[in-house]
Structure formats: C-alpha cells, structure tokens
C-alpha cells in the first residue's frame, strides 16, 4: 500500500505543476495518481485478496468476494483515466477521474468513521484515506475549473 501512495503522490504533485501550465494538463498526473493507484489497488484487493484481508484484519479464512469487487472498482477508475487520455476526451474527463477516485476514498472514510467495528483501520489509516480523498477531489475540481 505504501507504494500506491508514493506513486500516487508523485502523480499528484506533477498535476499541481502541469495544471498551471498553458495549456493545462493532468495527463501524467492521472496516469500515476489515478490509473497506477487504481491498478495497484486492484491487484492488492482482488489478486492478493487473502494477504490484504489479513493486513486489514478481516481474514475470514476464505475468499472475500466483496473485497474483489472493491478491487474491480479501483480498476474501473484506473482504466477510465487511461481511456480518457488515450482517446483524448479532454481535460474535463481526466479531471473527472480524479473526482471519481477522490469521492470513493472520502465515502470509504465516512463509512469507517460511522461503522462501530472498524478494527481494520487505525487512526493513521483513516487520516491517510481522508487526506488522499480530499486531495484527489481538490485536483478534480481544479482540473474541471481549468477545463472551463
């Protein structure tokens, strides 16, 4: 998970720089902060689901299909960002990939906060996912504003 945040963070800071250029762009930022993190999260949740479940504190001794579904959701926004770039759908579509990803993380953070049994995430994890979600939403909104 650490590599996911490192790669995503590098992409995010690239986005801060490239969004201020003329013309503004989020291409490399999205490839790292949205696509790479989405694909890495897919592998963590769906392919290596048992070890991820043990790490999260919810190893039920069997495959957890919901966790695989979460991995597929991660893959979906990662692939969406790639498609938006490859097919040149424009800055607004690429910015939307940041919004989708960020909203997902914020909703997960809210879920963890309101769920009584949240042993799967400590306070550090909750803070991390909340901050990441807020950063991704902010980049998405900034990208939408730059797109006009």
Stretches with pLDDT under 50, minimum 5 residues: none
Fraction in beta strands: under 5%
Tally of distinct domains:
1
Q: Cα distance, first to last residue?
A: 34 Å
Helical content, roughly? Answer: over 70%
Written account of the structure:
The protein has 6 helices and no strands. Helix 2 (27-47) packs across helix 5 (91-114), helix 4 (65-86) runs antiparallel to helix 5 and helix 5 runs antiparallel to helix 6 (123-147). The longest helix has 25 residues, at 123-147. The protein starts with a helix and ends with a helix. The protein has 148 residues and is mainly α. The model has no long low-confidence stretch (mean pLDDT 89). It has helices at 2-18, 27-47, 49-56, 65-86, 91-114, 123-147. It has one domain.
Secondary-structure map with pairings?
Elements: H1 2-18, H2 27-47, H3 49-56, H4 65-86, H5 91-114, H6 123-147
Helix pairs in contact: 1-2, 2-3, 2-4, 2-5, 4-5, 5-6
Describe the structure in brief.
With 148 residues, the chain is mainly α. Helix content is 79%, strand content 0%. Helix 1 runs antiparallel to helix 2 and helix 4 packs antiparallel against helix 5 (91-114).
Keywords:
mainly alpha, globular, 148 residues, 79% helix
